[in-house]
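Appendix C: a fully annotated inverse folding record. The material below is reproduced so that readers can follow the format used throughout the book. The structure is listed first as tokens, followed by the designed sequence.
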């Protein structure tokens, strides 16, 4: 199959949409297949209600409308008026002021819908700083919210709290580096607006999954000085953040929402695509009823060239002009639906995202589901895509939490086999060609319980959201360890802390790409709220004043990320195959508590929840690396005999134990065959020499 590129999605007719400046004038190009007329409306720089000029666009080939005018200068505030036919699928209104879908800047007037596009003159001195291009096997993602990360940080300049500049403040860069993460993944930064229903309840859309424009950074995350300086200054602050993070070797990944827009269902806000060409940009039935596979009212129609090209052009802009290193696609299955609204892993857009030369070396991560029919597609994205692995999340939570809860009342429901598969890279989910790096492993994310709340609450507590606790997931696979929420019981607090260490240890020692949710490394809480999407408050902002146990937990994470970097056996790029030499894979051997090779019947025996996992690299270059990980998944302590059948092994050097409250600096050397007491529900990592 020929490579899918921007040129193959709609051809040259769809090139250079939006405003391009040249020779002292600007050319505006807008796509609308069904429009009868398109008008450019220019506004006063200070009064966005004052129209200063109107110019008609002329229709060109391929459904593109175009005008070249001296009115289009850097800083010009403008909008579109589009008229067209009436009938099923069409909602044209010649009086509505619409945003340019390709506009690079935004200005807001007084009202909820009083937005104007702004002409931007691109220009930024990157100072020779280039993308870090961290290999996937060395990538450790830190998922956070622009505002929440720094809003309460005592060492970040107060004027930069909750801003793009704050994300790249020296105090934050020092922290990222010490923690050992390699990439910051930011919740949506494309310009977004809160839903009217939230505003009516005195709440807001904190997470940002309600996109207004795919080419503009969210203005509210810029510092006050940048906001006063206008869209160019906001853009410069965003780029400055990226440059500083890149200087520190830290990549920037964006959580992007292309599956729907803030226009909601029919009758919702009409701000851009709906008024420009509703029939082409949104999925709908022949009678104009929307096909909603996203749960928010509309779904972008990527089965049309214009819809797919809008997504691809936006990605190219952020990857090139903004120097973004990767993208995590919200509800990515929606992007891969064809003209029949069915998911197709060979969808031209999914293929183009991975094959377009402008996106080479960009990390591509799918949230591999949506809420439509056939929407769950974990393991079914094209080669070159990585995916959020919900099967990993569920199995790891089960093993360390819900299984333990169940065992207290009866006995453990399952053995260690399914957990081992996830630990080793989820080979039963991803093909050999894709390998373990197709799996983005996570135990928590922005959506759901925090790590602390996962071990402290059995049920959600979302009353603050104003939906009678009906919102948010009911199935959390959590375990409060005996008391719901806060407690002073030292025994319960100790076992909760160990559970957090087990979950983080599993995450950072598993094959695949680990993603840590910001704040989990020090056990932040949202007081049991597992759907804080509308909570822009201290509930969702990170608190940087920590107790000793939180500092200890952070040190565990920093040690684990360092050990992951130092031991390639923990991060294979390919699956090993029995009897074959597969470079960049890890050969894995599995032993029971007696140091004997695991037998087939032991894997799924609920009475056997202890294993020893040995992994040895097959390097492309350099020396081999070997590790041994002991996992014990019941609350009763056990004696484990270290294996004595690993070829050439003379010693096991202890590197980390989840049973330790504070990470140990002592690296004890143990001998093959030595018996080691293992506390209940714990892990222990060794280097094999």
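Designed amino acids, in order:
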């Amino acid at each position: 199959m020929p490579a899918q590129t921007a040129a193959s999605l709609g051809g040259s007719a769809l090139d250079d949409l939006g405003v391009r400046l040249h020779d002292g004038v600007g050319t505006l190009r807008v796509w609308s297949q069904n429009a009868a007329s398109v008008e450019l409306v220019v506004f006063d720089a200070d009064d966005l209600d004052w129209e200063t000029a109107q110019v008609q666009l002329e229709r060109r080939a391929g459904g593109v409308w175009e005008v070249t005018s001296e009115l289009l200068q850097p800083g010009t505030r403008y909008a579109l008026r589009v008229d067209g036919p009436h009938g099923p699928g069409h909602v044209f209104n010649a009086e509505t002021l619409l945003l340019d879908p390709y506009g690079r800047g935004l200005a807001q007037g007084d009202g909820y819908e009083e937005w104007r596009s702004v002409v931007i003159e691109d220009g930024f001195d990157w100072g020779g700083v280039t993308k870090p291009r961290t290999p996937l096997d060395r990538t450790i993602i830190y998922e956070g919210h622009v505002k929440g990360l720094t809003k309460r940080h005592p060492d970040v300049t107060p004027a930069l709290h909750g801003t793009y500049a704050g994300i790249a403040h020296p105090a934050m860069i020092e922290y990222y580096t010490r923690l050992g993460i390699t990439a910051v993944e930011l919740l949506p930064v494309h310009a977004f607006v809160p839903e009217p229903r939230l505003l009516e309840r005195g709440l807001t859309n904190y997470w940002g999954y309600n996109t207004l424009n795919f080419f503009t950074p969210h203005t509210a995350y810029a510092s006050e000085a940048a906001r006063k300086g206008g869209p160019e200054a906001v853009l410069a602050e965003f780029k400055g953040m990226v440059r500083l993070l890149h200087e520190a070797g830290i990549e920037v990944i964006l959580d992007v929402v292309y599956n729907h827009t803030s226009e909601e269902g029919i009758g919702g806000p009409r701000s851009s695509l709906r008024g420009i060409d509703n029939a082409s940009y949104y999925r709908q039935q022949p009678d104009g009823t929307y096909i909603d596979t996203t749960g928010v009212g509309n779904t972008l129609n990527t089965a049309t060239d214009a819809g797919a090209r809008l997504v691809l052009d936006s990605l190219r802009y952020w990857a090139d002009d903004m120097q973004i290193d990767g993208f995590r696609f919200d509800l990515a299955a929606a992007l891969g639906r064809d003209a029949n609204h069915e998911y197709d892993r060979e969808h031209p857009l999914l293929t183009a995202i991975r094959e377009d030369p402008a996106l080479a070396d960009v990390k591509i991560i799918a949230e591999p589901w949506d809420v439509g029919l056939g929407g769950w597609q974990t393991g079914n994205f094209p080669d070159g895509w990585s995916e959020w692995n919900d099967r990993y999340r569920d199995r790891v939570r089960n093993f360390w939490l819900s299984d333990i809860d169940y065992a207290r009342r009866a006995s453990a429901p399952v053995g260690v086999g399914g957990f081992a598969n996830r630990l080793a890279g989820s080979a039963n989910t991803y093909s050999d060609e894709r390998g373990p790096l197709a799996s983005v492993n996570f135990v928590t994310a922005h959506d759901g319980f925090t790590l602390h709340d996962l071990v402290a609450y059995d049920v959600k507590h979302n009353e603050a959201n104003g939906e009678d606790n009906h919102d948010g997931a009911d199935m959390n696979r959590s375990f409060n360890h005996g008391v719901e929420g806060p407690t002073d019981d030292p025994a319960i607090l100790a076992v909760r802390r160990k559970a957090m260490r087990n979950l983080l240890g599993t995450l950072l020692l598993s094959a695949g790409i680990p993603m840590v949710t910001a704040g989990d490394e020090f056990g932040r809480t949202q007081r049991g709220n597992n759907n804080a999407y509308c909570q822009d408050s201290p509930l969702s902002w990170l608190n940087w004043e920590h107790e000793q146990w939180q500092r200890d937990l952070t040190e565990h994470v920093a040690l684990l990320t360092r050990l992951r970097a130092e031991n390639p056996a923990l991060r294979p790029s390919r699956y090993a195959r029995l009897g074959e030499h597969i470079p960049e894979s890890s050969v894995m051997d599995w032993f029971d508590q007696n140091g004997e090779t695991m037998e087939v019947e032991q894997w799924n025996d609920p009475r056997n929840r202890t294993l020893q996992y040995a992994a040895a690299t097959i390097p492309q270059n350099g020396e081999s690396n070997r590790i041994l990980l002991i996992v014990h998944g019941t609350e009763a302590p056990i004696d484990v005999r270290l294996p004595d059948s690993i070829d050439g092994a003379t010693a096991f050097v202890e590197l980390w134990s989840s049973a330790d409250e504070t990470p140990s600096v002592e690296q004890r050397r143990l001998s093959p065959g030595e018996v080691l007491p293992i506390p209940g529900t714990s892990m222990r990592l060794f280097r094999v020499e």
